[in-house]
Amino acid sequence: MEVGHIRQRRLSDNIVEQLETMILEGTLQPGERLPPERALAEQFGVSRPSLREAVQKLVAKGLLISRQGGGNYVSETLGSSFSDPLLGLLEGRPEAQRDLLEFRHTLEADCAYYAALRATEVDRQHLQTAFDELQRCYAKEGKATRAEEGAADARFHLAIAEASHNMVLLHTIRGLFDLLKRNVVTNIGGMYALRSETRLMLVEQHQALFAAIMQGRAEDARKIASEHISYVQDVLAQSQEENRRMARAQRRERSPTR
After folding, report:
1. Which residue among 20, 95, 137, 184 is least crowded, i.e. fewest CB within 10 A of its CB?
2. What is the DSSP string of 61-127?
3. Strand 64-67 vs strand 71-74: parallel, antiparallel, or unpaired?
4. What range does the record give for the signal peptide (predicted)?
5. Which of 120, 22, 119 is nearest to 78 (CA)?
């Protein structure tokens, strides 16, 4: 049996692996600037030339962007599943809104389940911050813009995905963040107009979901997340039916036979 030589791994390859892990687990986020070269080299306990070589390898892979005189950044396009033109197309189509909610139904229930099982103290602090921001929007009782409320809602669900410690779930949710945010903005306008109790229901559902995750009640968290999306689906289905009835009535009104 022939035995090949064991190739000694370069120090820069170890640094590449460490930085890739930080990107995958969400420690380094798309668009985030890396610490200055000197500080990062000290943090890893490596020489600056080795760090520089590792950064160049990640730039070649498209994971990092190096800006002349401006430092190194995680690529902003990582996980961007949907381009802006496609967002615009999806935003105006009711069937796309329905499809996204169906997708969220499974995805976010699993995120909540694993977050309740795996959240660390740091995760709970981040989740608390996101939850508090969402509650501040709700406390304004309609004075917060739909965009502000949609962004706060999406950030809360993203914090849950981060706490799940499932890299595939996290990057799927992160890649959908803009679409999720727009979906919430589109949904809440119609929901609030249709049912006066919607705001209170959403407040209670998010509070219950937050409590279940913070208390480590995984099955409860999954159930509450599923019920939350089901409620949104039911209200929007009612809204779409109301719109269809209104459109039929308007067509009859415009009919020349009347």
Report:
1. 95
2. HTSEEEETTTEEEE-TTTT--S-HHHHHHHHT-HHHHHHHHHHHHHHHHHHHHHHHHH--HHHHHHH
3. antiparallel
4. none
5. 22
23 neighbors 63 (Cβ within 8 angstroms): yes
The 10s digit of each residue's pLDDT in 56-91 is: 999 998 889 988 878 999 988 776 555 555 555 566
Which amino acid, 145?
A: T
- What average pLDDT does this structure show over 98-118? 90
Q: Which of 113-117, 126-130, 218-222, 250-254 has the lowest mean pLDDT?
A: 250-254
For residues 243 and 97, give the distance between their C-alpha atoms in angstroms, rounded to a whole number.
15
Six token digits for residue 36:
């200055």
Rounded distance between C-alpha atoms, residue 155 and residue 221, angstroms: 17
Tokens standing for residue 27:
């420690």
The mean pLDDT value of the chain amounts to: 82
The residues near 44 (Cβ < 8 Å, ≥ 6 apart) are 15, 18, 51
- What DSSP assignment string belongs to 178-241? HHHHHHHHHHHHHHHHH-TTHHHHHHHHHHHHHHHHHTT-HHHHHHHHHHHHHHHHHHHHHHHH
